[in-house]
Amino acid sequence: YNLKVSKILLDFNMSMNSQIIDLRSDTVTLPSEDMLDAIKSVKLGDDVFSEDPTVNSLQEKAASIMGKEDALLVPSGTMGNLVSILVHCNRGDEVILGDQAHTFLYEAGGISAFGGIHSRQLKNNDDGTIDLDQIEASIREENVHFPPTTLISLENTHNRCFGAALTPDYMFRVSEIAKKNNCKVHLDGARIFNASVALDLDVKDLTKDVDSLTFCLSKGLSSPVGSVICGASDFIKKARHLRKALGGGMRQAGIIAKFGEFSLDHMISQIKKDHKNALMLGQGLSKISGIDIDTEKIHSNIVYFKLDENKSSFSKKMVQLMNDKGILFFEVSPNRYRLVTHYGIESNHIKIVLETISEIL
Fold first, then answer.
1. pLDDT > 50? residue 109
2. pTM of this prediction?
3. Which residues of 154-185 are buried (b: 16+ CB within 10 A; e: fewer)?
4. Is 48 within 8 Å of 74 (Cβ atoms)?
5. Three-state DSSP class for 228?
């Protein structure tokens, strides 16, 4: 009897979950039926021996798309950034990055814990940039008291800065500062295809001036897992060694890689739809009494809003009440909310979200 009840409850929960509108992140995307079909005939090998043909094919495709010599599949964007920074920096070196950077805020302090690398956080502007004069002024002079500055790390699009995209001109100017001061530039390009779509540019235009980059297959591209590091051949050779040391050497990883290949071939076009839905969501929120939102800061698939002062006492209840209605999103700081559109979110879902928020407020 208990087993029967448990099964009924499980079936009910699965049914309820299918009705959930999950806007917490684009990491919650599920593969399409076509993606699942694509892996049925995947060819496999041992990737630690560089013998998985599907992994090799994905890496060649990724390097070509990004305009780099080589690429390396890793389990996550966090590992991708960690491995890249460990290649560029020795213990005791310093990396310059933004105070809102994903690497600084959300990657468990890995560059310090595993690499002994000192981070220097500079203020991110709302458009994701760091003032160029601040970057130049923060590069250490050679002195026994200081950690040597060896790397500048940027993020595009910028998660915490309204999903803003960094322009090719900005990337070039940062790279010129880096070259002048014997530094490298790494790009956390987790959502680099969102930047490419937002700016209507070839992704190579956004990567040509960086020494290395990572991008996620499991966000806007809808793969279930995986990220890719891209860079020069010597850089990737060192990255492969560090990936192994960190436990990221996967064996028959072609199962993952096939999803990634399909994503690069078929899912980039989805991003434009995600951006359209985000704008629809933001514009709808701006019409709801009690919402504080700047629609000019909706750049890609990420929407931030606040509650007006007269509603701010309600902020702690907001997420829970929406969860109870089957709509999920994050309060990223007191009275600041983030909603992310992605594959699986349709325009009718946006309408339901807007109607529910309006009703609750």
1. yes
2. 0.93
3. bbbbbbbbbbbbbbbebbeebbebbeeeebbb
4. no
5. strand
